[in-house]
Amino acid sequence: MGKNARRRRRGGLDGAPASKRRKRTEWTDSPLGRAVEPAGLVLSDGTEPNKLTVEPAIFQKKLSALFRRHPNTQEAVDEFTESLKKYTDNSVRFRQALLPTSVADGADVMSRSGGLDSLMRQLLSVDYLQPSVAHLLLLRLSSYMDTEPSSHSLNTRELCQMPALIINQLRWLDHIVNGKDLCRELLEVVGVAPVEIQREIVTAIPEILDDAQHNNAALELKSLLQSNSGLMAATIDAMSSLNLSFDIEAEVLDVAMGCLGTASVADLPLVLRFIMQQVNSKSAVEIIGEVREKLDFESSFLSHPAACSTPRSSSQRPFVRLSAEVSDRFMVFDAISSSIRFKKPVADGWMKSIEAVAEQSEHKVIDLFVLFILHSLPARKKAVETLFATKVRTQLFTDELLAAAFGPHAKALSEFFPSVLSLCESLLASSSPTITSFTTSLYQHLFSTFDIYCRQEVIGTLVTHIGSGMPTEVNHALDILATLVETRRSEMDRFAVLIKGVLDYLEHLSVGQIRRLYSVLSVLAFHDVETGGSGVQDEMHTLIRKQLSHVESKYRRMGVVGAVMIIQQLGRRRETTDLSLRLTSGCSQSSSQSDSTLPPARRRQAISMLDDVMRNCSKSPDSAVLFCDEMTAAVQSLPLDHALLRHLCDETTSVFQDTFLVEVSDSLPSDLGLPVELAHGLDSSEEDSIAVNMFPLATRQDERSRERGSCLRGMAAQFRLLRVCEQILNGSLEGVDALLGAPVVMSVRDRLESERFEDLPLVKRQSVCLSLCHCLNWFRELVCAFSGEKDVDMRGKVMVRMKDITDMQTLLESCMAATPGFLPPLVTAEEVKAPVRPRRGKRLGSKGDTTVANTTNITQNVDKDSTTTEKTTGMPTVSLDLYRQYFRELDLGVFAILEYGPISRTLLDTEEHTREREELRLLPQQLSFLLHDLCHKLTTTLSQFGSRRLSGGRGKSRGRPSSGGGKDGGGKIQLFSVDELVSMTANIVGSLCEHLESTSGFFQAQLEENDGIVDMQCTHDDHAIHCTNLDLLLRSMATFFAWPPLSDPHYSEQLFTGLKSLASRIGHATGQQSASIPELAPSVHRYLQQFSDSLPSLSSAHLLAKLMVAIGKTSPSLHPLISNSCQGLLQRKWGAMGTNQQRSDALEYLIRYHVEWSEDPLEALETITGDGITDLLGEEASEESSSYPTLSSATLPCYYRALMSGLVGQMKAIPPPSKKTTPTTEECLERFHLLEVSAKVLYILVNVVKSFDRRTMLSSALKVWCMRP
Questions:
Q1: CA–CA separation, 1249 vs 1258, rounded Å?
Q2: Does the record carry Ubl conjugation as a key word (predicted)?
Q3: Staple 1028 to which of 31, 302, 530, 867, CB 3.0 to 4.6 Å?
Q4: What are 1071-1108's pLDDT values in tens digits?
Q5: By three-state DSSP, how is residue 915 classified?
Q6: What is the chain's percent helix, strand, coil content, to nearest 5?
Q7: Each residue of 999-1042: pLDDT tens digit?
């Protein structure tokens, strides 16, 4: 020992010569110096780092041994700490004590490259010193809360670094001596420190404290989070790194959940990541559901930047702030995306939470984002597509939700573009109109939101679908392309060459699809000749001329469609004002309207194309019909040049007169095999100068097509084109009004109505049927043309033509029944499948008759027992409803006839004296004809757009080509838009009410004549036609008012008009324009309730209930009244209940709304089961319930299915007890009462299964319980 001591005295600490001894400082003899310098550290005066002469571990070991051997350790520690405090009073020395130490010259230390701990860090590693040194550091931290350089000897930059340097000393210590005190002191400093220092300390807490103190720290952080939202990011980040117990974790999670609604966009990612870390398989649905409920993207993304816990400077330039906001959105989406991708319970929770949403208003933008993320995962792609399609089909996802998603969040969604595009492709294959409309909107958002590369991908995808050969995909892709061209034409111009490639696949497209494609290409190529793509123009011209001259009809049809689309674009007037040429019958456009100047070269090009296509079509009746229909649609849909229209009108008039009209003075032909006459003339003999040469043309063979009557196929189409051009050019139909009363050359009617018709040769019978078909189409076009005229004489002629139509239909049905193998001629360019004719001796609609499947929805749903007249002669009957596609479609203007009142008509004798006066009115047969067509239009058209309005307006305009694919053929031209149909229906509701009252009056008279009993057997034709009309009237109004988009603001005016017409029937003040829809609804219900006592059948009751429910959805206050109305219909005895399916649908519908809209649904269920079903149970069971006559052993399965479904729904609606709050006594009693009534109803329904152990009963119970959402 002595030798070593002498060596130390002679030399340095490491045995160096005395000449290299270190210079003594003022701190050498202090307790601090006496402790650290012998242990191997040389204190600095602040000008240079503190230096180690030994390894750090040796230094710490020696220092620890010094205090351990001291007789009074605590006293030595206190002296050391006091000396250290004085040493660090100087800011410069204190800063050096916080910075890494260096290695002294000549010292044997391995770590010479740097990375040595600071002096404070070395002292904290000594257990004896750690508590006091840590306390000293936290005290020093409070002194640096003031960042003014004047109070310290450091510059501003060094001063700002000091809090972080102090906190870093406490991070990642190998051992914590007194973690509880350290935690307490840290949190005390947090309570008084500025926000910046608070954020530093909170962020470092997981790295400072050991696991034993994490729970205590979490509780304090939870309180801090609730009181200081500015530390949200730091607090959440710290708590995500703490190891917490289950209870503390649940408390912290609740607090984090509460932050979702108030967190800024910058803080949302951290909050979401923390919450998602807590998700497991058991709590996934509950946590994700609460996240969905509280996470509001709109309010979060619109929050003020100052609310962020990491605020940005308000002096940032606008584009910098915008970039930061987009980055924030990316971070939010990334937080959700990463949790979904890497945690299966999170993905499962999101799927189940979104699937459980049952209301449209409850869906949020986050639902779409999550589904886009989930769809990018291969394992969940199919499930997401199914869920997404279901949400769209049930109208839970709307266009408004899409707009909210793509509008403010477009840039952040760019990462998910491939996923969204793939989802669009899967939806494109759906045949649902609702999904189709939504997919169109989705494609529009994709095209308008993203960059040019993404747009090219969208167009390429659509082109691929067009070439796929799948009809549904082709139709939808073409419709979407047309919508994009209509709304984004300038952006679509650059993709014209890409779309042009579809021309290579024309052979695989239908006429409607070709029409749509040519419409798109013609707009892109010819909307501006100077700037349009000349390459596309030249290629289209060449292709169409080849098609028009082709020998095959299918290629000629392609050429006709393409030529008309080009003519439409070339001849389109470029006017500054919006001139609508969408005319309904009777609407006129003044010829005095200014005509824009069309460039002569453009007009010559259009006329040349028009002459070329007319010349080629003259050789083919099919092409001629197609050209006339296509050209009519083109003229109606867009304003064309008047010079072009005049040329078209002159050419059509010349051909029509030469082909179909003859002079009355000419002798009638006698070589046709049957005698002919001038029939159906409405004018006096002096006024008659022309006649329609119908039967001769139907009998003679056309030289061009070698087919009898082939030229007549184009007569109706040519007249339609002629009268539309006349209307546009002259503003009236004066130039063609002589055709309305002109007679028709037909075979003598006596031979057709007698039984000798069957004795005629088959060829003659076919000629008669052919002439009747063409004459019927001729009359239909006449009615379409002149039904809107205001002149009384013209209206009288229209009424007579309506009677001619109904009489001729009856005659044609009898003639076709006696002419086997005859099919009506096609008067359009559609390719339709011929219906199957019933065999002789078999009544239509009998078992095994395949024609039933081809009937329209209206024919299927109207009760056969009350709407058809059975023929028992053994002759097969023919219904023209099966041949609807063979006859010309009626315009919307035809329904103006419903508004006609009684019309007086004067009949003159040969001397121009009044012979008699005839009063014309709409008879039940003509009313049935119009109502059938109205119901067909409403059912087919509204169902195609039953979900929502298409973007940019309602669907397709009248006369605008559609891609087809409907029930009536793929090439049909739509003659009206949905908006026009809805407006027209709203305007004629008053007229429908008049006819409803008149028809109901017929049954009221029967009630009075038969002592309150309606003749249920429908044995009389008069009764049957009134039953049919009543059902059709109720069905048309129910279809209109039950259309879901009618409640949209876009249709508020039409809904108000319809309801006001109904309310005015019972004296409601129609002049009160300020009356709201809910104010009108009670009057409407009182009006409809008047008809419930005179209903002839259960099907009529079903339709009336549907109409009431549609009205009730506009005013919830009517629900109890409608429930009572449904109950009254259930408690009435019906004679005619229809087929089993009709009876089941009606009863289930009435029970459903009686229960759901009752003031107490469970009480309603209890009443039906207690008063009704119990009558069928027990020893004294009866065949029919006394309180509910509609309930019998035959209808029990219907009742059982509806009651079980209602019970399940009501039980699921009982609110579960809250997990967070204790329910009150009243709430518990109310819940027990509901469960008691539910159990009672279930007990009765179980007894029903015991007494009636039918398979239908058991299957109904299983299906309801398993499938009820």
A1: 7
A2: yes
A3: 867
A4: 455 678 888 888 999 999 999 988 999 999 999 999 99
A5: strand
A6: 65, 5, 30
A7: 998 888 887 777 666 554 444 678 889 999 999 999 999 999 99
User: Of 151, 40, 164, which is closest to residue 98 (Cα–Cα)?
Assistant: 164
Residue 194 three-state SS:
coil
Chain mean position to CA 262:
31
Long-range contacts of 879-882 (CB under 8 A, 24+ apart): 879/813, 879/844, 879/855, 880/809, 880/812, 880/813, 881/855, 881/856, 881/932, 882/835, 882/851, 882/854, 882/855
Q: H/E element holding 525?
A: helix 511-526
Rounded to whole angstroms, how far apart are CA atoms 1005 and 1012? 9
Pairing of strands 102-103, 51-52: parallel
- Show Cβ contacts of residue 442 under 8 Å, excluding neighbours closer than 6 positions: 402, 420, 423, 424, 427
pLDDT band at residue 535 under the 50/70/90 scheme: confident
**What angle do helix axes 1077-1089 and 1098-1112 make, rounded to 10 degrees?**
170
Measured from the Cβ of residue 470, the count of other Cβ atoms closer than 10 Å reads 14
Sheet harboring 690-692: ordered strands across? 661-663, 690-692, 744-747, 676-679
Distance CA 781, CA 585 (A): 10
Task: Give the residue among 540, 538, 537, 542 at the shortest CA–CA distance from 526.
Answer: 537
Q: Tell me, rounded to whole angstroms, the distance of Cα 1122 from its chain centroid.
A: 29
Assess contact for 174 and 56: CB atoms under 8 A: no
Q: Closest Cα to residue 869, out of 1021, 714, 675, 1059?
A: 1021
Helix (H, G, I), strand (E, B) or coil at 672: coil
DSSP state of 691: E
Count CB atoms within 10 A of the CB of residue 782.
24
Q: Give one DSSP letter per residue of 46-85, joined into a string.
A: SSS--EESS-HHHHHHHHHHHHHHSSSHHHHHHHHHHHHH
Backbone angles phi, psi at 1068, to 5 degrees: -65, 140
Query: Cα–Cα distance between 1051 and 942 in angstroms, integer?
Result: 13
Read off the pLDDT band of 108 (50, 70, 90). low
Question: Alpha carbon 133 to chain centroid distance?
Answer: 67
Q: Which helix (H) or strand (E) holds 1240?
A: helix 1225-1251
Question: How confident is residue 1201, by pLDDT bands cut at 50, 70 and 90?
Answer: confident
Residue 924 pLDDT level (bands cut at 50, 70, 90) = very high
- From CA 90, how far away is CA 70, in angstroms rounded? 29
Strands 661-663 and 690-692: antiparallel
Considering only CA atoms, which of 907, 904, 902 is closest in space to residue 923? Answer: 902
Amino acid at site 770: L
How deeply is 227 buried, as exposed, middle or buried, from its count of CB atoms within 10 A (0-12, 13-18, 19+)? Answer: exposed
Q: Whole-angstrom Cα distance, residue 59 to residue 625?
A: 106
Whether the per-residue pLDDT at 874 is higher than 50: the answer is no
Strand partners of residue 640: 572
Six-digit token pair at 150?
Answer: 């004047």
Task: Tell me the pLDDT tens digit for each residue of 1216-1236.
Answer: 776 666 778 888 888 888 888
Dist CA 813 CA 929 (whole Å): 14
Share of the chain above pLDDT 70, in %: 80
Strands (DSSP E) contained in 18-166 are 41-42, 51-52, 102-103
Handedness of CA 849, 853, 858, 861 (dihedral sign): positive
Q: Which of 1033, 928, 1029, 1050 is nearest to 977 (CA)?
A: 1050
Helix (H) or strand (E) holding 540: helix 534-548
Residues in the chain, total? 1269
Q: In the chain, what's the furthest Cα-to-Cα distance?
A: 163
Concatenating the DSSP letter of every residue in 973-1033 gives PP-S-HHHHHHHHHHTHHHHHHHHHHHHHHHHHHHHHTTS---TT--SHHHHHHHHHHHHH
